[in-house]
Specification:
heterodimer, A: alpha/beta, 8-stranded mixed beta sheet, 25 helices, globular, B: mainly alpha, elongated, disordered N terminus
């Protein structure tokens, strides 16, 4: 039977839902043909959820685009087949393809706001789906839409249906997008990083929803993610991709318990686990970086970074997937002989006794309000022109010299505002900041002395914005050296210092001549660290320095940052939403919610009962990429309230699962301080909070 | 391996570097047919302007034989390739010398408008607040006048001369440049590298000129090509209205003006300078489109 004859026929009953065979995809650019996906095979059945995991640039999203036949003008399938219910997607005519897209195959993207049309109500957007794909009447379509909204756990579907996308929160938007995808009763659902843009507590709810979808709606799911922990909670099989190829494919338990490919193993070693810390078991980053698609090595793509590389075996030619059972495949020539357990186990280092040192930073009752002026005529008449946004409210904390203090919280909790106030980029409304005993709070950055500027520097979040794309790396570091230190006068001295700083962050000296666009994300972040340490600072503020980096790069940058900090005795203020990393590297932790400190204490105390109920929920929301741990599931209702109109009393009472009663809504909670200096702002007494079960337990 | 850059080392070989960079980015223009067409037209006129003293067959202001049609024989044995005007001056030679005028004043006037517009835009975008309010309102007022009326008002007030053309163009175009720069700065000033510069205590003007402006160059290069085109038209219009360079020096707009009464009888006298103006403007517009096209694909 020819392929042409197959087209008109009904889908084959015994064919798998999605059968991808030896798919290869290339992009065409100025540099010529760039293979993006090589020899990709996958079989997905109804009600099954398969994950596609890999770091950025590994080709995982390209696969999803190819399934929808959405490759742009410069992309093409150069080999292999994609069979959907036995039909070859590549040969479908345009009108069949239109029925398929959004009908039988639906896709959920990363950014919910850009998936929804901002000028249409959500109801109107949802109605389109059944009207177009199922020829439903508008009334039927509306009823279907309401039940779909109900299905994805949105309270009050009628209100949501009449809202515009900007009137609901990010988590609700993503639920709407999922509802829209499910409305056409698709048999295949493609999810491309559906929770990456969301806060952890919101993510937890969406992950629960996704995990229940496959069974409930009999859809097959292809879940694309960079987060191994999420995959463990949602999928049954995993494909790990590296540089365009699937390098390991197995069931979740097999892959997480006995990874066979050195890259997979390396990825797991890059993720801090709850029982590791920076001294007892440092992370082992994967050395080197992802090869550019047009500079892939001959043979195994991972060979240049692999500890088990063997010349003559690994660099001879393309490696194919192999395995001893039907369920676990590895693209490695040596997987039979590699024994990861034989790795030398280092004696756990003993934590150096911390000498009680002086306070480097002391913040007392810091407040930062932003005034939002309403210039409308109505506001002028009623004389209610200005509203205060309380970004920081009564922040009191201190950090000792050489200590790592972490500030955690979800977006909008005021942690970045705090960093800006500290740096002098914003002036505080009230309160005092002492840096090495000197008050700096009232001095904006323009009026700070050279010594003050040098002693307080910052590492930024987005590696693409941290360096000026117009100037060379060397020029940018040299400028800081010239501005902030006096001991390097001549041009050669400055050039040597630049080289020395690049070496400090383990970059070759000739990187000084490069422009930022010639650097990878991790390398840019290293330059950002070198720049921050150029003036020998006593305090470095790192605002989410890892969150834009890939897992394997994150581990390397984390280790680097801590090494330099230890060497220089610098105090590090580490701002993050990633509790895994915070638990790993921080000495003390501050948990913030809506501008207020909820909990503060030594890391080991904050991460164990007694918890503040918010900390407890945060901990339970963080996915953990290991099958050994069991955790309590606490899914918070709704999303963080707006800082414009914070709840009265305890600001967390609207979402709290341990709310005691009216007192939470009316009175500010007292701050309970335990003997260990661990403070919790809650109405529930410490004794009662201590009896709470720990969030994490090791499965027996 | 060469030594790493320091700010001062950078300055010493900056000229060589930027020259290489300009040539390299010009080479990228090959990818766009539109850019090649635009480049050809512009380079053609630049070559004509540079070589005018060598290749022009007659002195531009010499009155030889009036009302000659194109290809007519000149008394001294040469040929009036494009004919002569009512005063007997060779049109080809005048067009060639006229290219010198327009290609001298148009880029100069545009550059001057850019310097003023960039300074205003940087200040408005970076400082915000009342500085932004004042600068934006001033530019709104200038932009709300019909451009032609504005030019006539300015030139009539301060008199017709080369320098006054530049002043008039600067006055009328700088607000447009300012708006573009301001909107680019509003976006760029939120970048982390600006915050990094602030935290090492750089002055506002250093941040604007060294950290922000270089990253705004892409849209500004495209806009400057378009704007040169408009300025060429403006200079032509001013010449046509008799507000351009004083006669008898050749000026395309002036040539059209002088011959317009005879346009029906001797169309070549008006059409040829018209073609000159349009082809040069078209060249710059195509170049702008081409640069935009090349910058879009990767």
């Amino acid at each position: 039977m020819t392929e042409q004859a197959m087209l008109g026929e009904p889908p084959l009953a015994d064919a798998p839902l999605l059968d991808i065979r030896n798919l290869s995809i290339s992009y065409y650019s100025r540099a010529g043909e760039i293979p993006a996906v090589i020899d990709f095979s996958l079989r997905l059945d109804t009600s099954e959820a398969i994950a596609l995991v890999g770091e950025s640039g590994c080709g995982k999203s390209t696969v999803a685009m190819a399934i929808m036949r959405y490759l742009g003008r410069n992309g093409a399938i150069v080999g292999g087949q994609i069979l959907f219910k036995g039909r070859d997607i590549m040969t479908l005519p345009a009108h069949e393809l239109r029925k398929l897209r959004g009908g039988e195959i639906a896709m959920v993207y990363q950014e919910p706001m850009s998936s929804l049309n901002p000028s249409m109500t959500i109801g109107d957007q949802l109605i389109e789906v059944p009207v177009y794909h199922a020829n439903a009447s508008r009334q039927e379509a509306y009823d279907l839409s309401l039940s779909a909204l109900d299905d994805v756990g949105l309270p009050d579907p009628t209100r949501v249906a009449t809202s515009y996308p900007h009137q609901i929160s990010g988590g609700q938007q993503q639920r709407v997008v999922i509802a829209m995808a499910l409305l056409s009763r698709p048999s295949l659902l493609l999810l491309d990083e559906p929770t990456t843009a969301l806060d952890v507590t919101v993510e937890a709810g969406i992950v629960d929803l996704i995990a229940s979808l496959a069974a409930k709606h009999q859809t097959g799911m292809l879940y694309i993610s960079h987060n191994l922990g999420l995959v463990l909670e949602t999928c049954s099989r995993v494909n790990v991709m590296y540089s365009g190829e699937v390098i390991e494919e197995a069931g979740v338990d097999a892959l997480f318990d006995t990874p066979r490919h050195p890259y997979t193993k390396g990825l797991f070693d890059c993720i801090p686990l709850p029982d590791t810390d920076k001294i007892a078991k440092p992370l082992t980053p994967i050395r080197g970086q992802l090869p550019l698609p047009n500079e892939r090595p001959k043979g195994c793509n991972f060979a240049p970074r692999c500890d088990y590389f063997e010349a003559g075996t690994c660099d001879t030619g393309p490696v194919s997937l192999s395995g001893d059972d039907a369920d676990h495949h590895v693209r490695c020539t040596k997987w039979m002989t590699i024994d990861f357990s034989a790795e030398s186990v280092d004696e756990p280092a003993v934590a150096p006794e911390r000498v009680a040192s002086a306070e480097a930073l002391k913040v007392t009752d810091l407040k930062k309000y932003y005034t939002i002026k309403d210039r409308s005529i109505g506001a002028l008449i009623s004389r209610r022109g200005a509203v205060d946004v309380k970004a920081n409210e009564a922040i009191t904390l201190s950090a000792k010299r050489g200590e790592t203090l972490a500030i955690v919280g979800e977006s909008g909790c005021g942690k970045s505002t705090f960093a800006k106030v500290l740096m002098g980029l914003e002036t505080p409304t009230d309160g005092e900041i002492l840096l090495d005993g000197q008050p700096i709070g009232a001095t904006p950055v323009r009026h700070r002395s050279k010594a003050q500027l040098a002693s307080l520097q910052m590492v930024f979040q987005d590696p693409n914005e941290t360096l000026n794309p117009s100037h060379t790396v060397g020029w940018q570091i040299a400028r800081v050296v010239n501005r902030l230190s006096t001991e390097y006068g001549t041009r050669e001295e400055v050039a040597n210092r630049v080289k020395q700083l690049l070496e400090l962050v383990k970059l070759p000296g000739d990187f000084a001549n490069r422009k930022p666009r010639q650097l990878s994300g991790g390398q840019k972040q290293r330059v950002g660290i070198a720049r921050a340490f150029a003036g020998n600072p006593s305090l470095v503020v790192a605002d989410e320095p890892l969150s834009a980096l890939d897992v394997s790069v994150q581990a390397a940058v984390t280790e680097l940052l801590m090494d330099i900090q230890r060497e220089h005795g610098t105090t590090l203020l580490f701002i993050s939403h990633d509790l895994g990393v915070v638990r790993y590297l921080a000495d003390r932790v501050v948990v913030m919610y809506l501008g207020r400190i909820m909990e503060l204490g030594l890391t080991k105390n904050v991460f164990a009962p007694p918890y503040h109920p918010y900390t407890e929920a945060l901990l339970s929301a963080v996915p953990i990429a290991n099958t050994r741990y069991e955790k309590k599931r606490i899914v918070l209702e709704g999303s963080p309230p707006s800082a414009l109109n914070p709840p009265s009393g305890c600001s967390f009472h609207t979402r709290c699962h341990r709310k005691v009663g009216a007192i939470c809504e009316t009175e500010l909670p007292p701050t309970i301080v335990t003997a260990a200096g661990h403070s919790i702002a809650c109405h529930i007494p410490a004794d009662e909070l201590s009896t709470v079960d720990p969030v994490l337990s090791t499965a027996t | 391996m060469s030594a790493p850059d320091t700010p001062s080392a950078f300055a010493s070989n900056a000229i060589t570097r930027s020259l290489v960079r300009v040539l390299r980015s010009l080479a990228v223009l090959r990818e766009s047919k539109i850019a090649i067409a635009g480049c050809t037209l512009v380079v053609f006129w630049i070559a004509v302007a540079l070589l005018a003293p060598l290749i022009a067959p007659f002195p531009p202001n010499a009155q030889i034989q009036p009302f000659a049609v194109p290809l007519a024989a000149a008394p001294d044995g040469g040929i009036f390739l494009l004919g002569t005007d009512q005063l007997g001056r060779d049109i080809l030679s005048r067009v060639m010398w006229g290219a010198r005028t327009v290609l001298f004043f148009a880029p100069l006037a545009t550059a001057s408008a850019y310097i003023v517009g960039i300074v205003m835009g940087l200040a408005a975008g970076y400082f915000g607040g009342w500085a932004d309010d004042v600068l934006s309102r001033v530019s709104d007022i200038i932009l709300s006048f019909p451009v032609l009326v504005l030019y006539i008002l300015i030139i009539v007030t301060i008199g017709a001369s080369g320098i006054n053309i530049i002043i008039a163009v600067t006055f009328a175009s700088a607000p447009g440049v300012m708006r573009i720069v301001r909107s680019l700065v509003l976006d760029l000033r939120t970048r982390n590298y600006v915050a990094a510069a602030q935290t090492r205590g750089e002055s506002p003007w250093y941040i604007m000129l060294v950290e922000i402006l270089p990253n705004a160059r892409g849209p500004l290069i495209v806009d400057s090509c378009l704007r040169i085109g408009y300025v060429i038209i403006t200079i032509g219009v001013l010449g046509f209205l008799g507000l351009g360079l004083p006669p008898p020096d050749p000026d395309w707009g002036g040539m059209i003006n002088e011959s317009r009464a005879l346009a029906l009888a001797f169309p070549h006298m008006t059409i040829i300078p018209c073609i000159a103006i349009s082809s040069l403007v078209l060249g710059f517009n195509l170049l702008a489109d081409g640069i935009r096209e090349v910058s879009l694909h990767d």
